[in-house]
Known about the structure:
mainly beta, seven-stranded antiparallel beta sheet, elongated, single chain, 5 helices
Amino acid sequence: MKRAFTILSMVIFGGMLVYNCEPDPDSLGEQLFLDGAANGKEIAYDVTAYNIDNNDSIRSDASKLGLATLGAFSESQFGMQKASYYTQLRLPAYDPDFGTNPTVDSVVLVIKPTYASDSITTTTDENYVYPDGSVPAKKVVNTYPATKYGRTKFNGGNLTVKVEEVTEFLNGYSDIAYSNKVYGSGQELGTKTFNGKVSSVVLTKDSDNSQLFSSEVGFRIPLSASFFKTKIIDKKGQPELKDVASFIRYFRGLKLSVTESNGYLVQFSPSTVELIMYYKSTDTGATTSTQKKYAFSVGNGNAHIGNYDYNRTGSALGSAPAPNTTTGDARLYTQGMGGNSIGIKFPVETINKLKALYQIDKAAIVSAKIRMYTDPVAWKNHLKKPTILTIVQKDIVDGKPTTNFTQDLLKLSSTPNFAYIKAYNLDKDPAYYEFTVTQSVKDIVESGEKYSDKSFKVDMGNFLSSSTGTTLAGYQFTSRPFALDRAVFVGSDPSNENKIQLIVTYGTK
């Protein structure tokens, strides 16, 4: 099934630009400064920023899960996060014939974590012996470090990956599933230590240099051969293998998890997961058995679900006061994969000051940005600071809450050099981010739009593009369901020089 959108590393409209200098006015009002037509002035105003508790839950079904996450990570600000993954599997063709006297040699589950392709280590074994027939061969292994988030050296950099049979029906590819739902699992089918590296393997025969075996870059987990002999091979001709509806209710799927509660998180694409059964059987008319390869369908078309478990006990977030939507929170916590969001509102005092400037001093708003700093004390660590976040606008229309892109994204996205967010000093403490809200502020101040029910919501992640790649898929399509990033920001703290503020540049004749 074709995905509704693709994942982009940059937002389509204008992208995310990183600077290390002071920002310039938006192009929306830059004509006011041309040829000395106006004098510009920048002034900071208070905003009310507060935490939004999402109950550590988010939609994480196949339509939302651009990347699957596996691992565990604990730190002082957000506590413990553990990520597991459920997937269905299907037969490549139904009512299969495995030949006469089939025996299963091995079964391998392959996941392909993201990795640093420019960091490679190659090992060669010229004296390797291929076990099937004791064939003299050469073994070449290329190894790469997987992309990791968290404590990469904890426990020697090892995670114990466990694969279990799912005992509860996962529903279909298009059905909604949430990240805090735990599905039943039963028999352990295999376990293997992941050392933080992925590799490819090529085996070639010494006699004629022909290829005996090859595998793409990934992490291979051996599974129980006897289980698949009983579960699949021995069911030949039975109703369980006759059609897809029967099969996914008979073999409900696989669960991947780690046994540790600390370490790091890795990610891989659900569409690239492989499950391969190697077996021998005798073909019709033959007298000897031959080795065969049976690849299950694990990728697109199956249910894929991310399961995220959190333990906030003892963390700064776990002991933080309840969100204060009236005067704001001193510290703001935001985390992908169902963690907190940040809410932002304009106080009455701020809007009244801006309206007075416009009505009395005839000041025209050239630029308006929400500036937000990372907390230099609470968020000083080795973790990479997020390069991009999303912001959406929330209103109440006809008594009903609505959500959409900000007015700037809706109206100004085609403006040259427009960027709804810019990040600064990502390699320093503090870093800071600026969200463009010029049009939203102008609508309130200059057009008298109602603002008491208006707010903004900031999240980790990126907006995703549509299937055409030329537009955004919609405000609700973001990478937040699988975004690893988290950060602590300075909120509405009057005693802090880095408090969150609305930075307005205006011009007067």
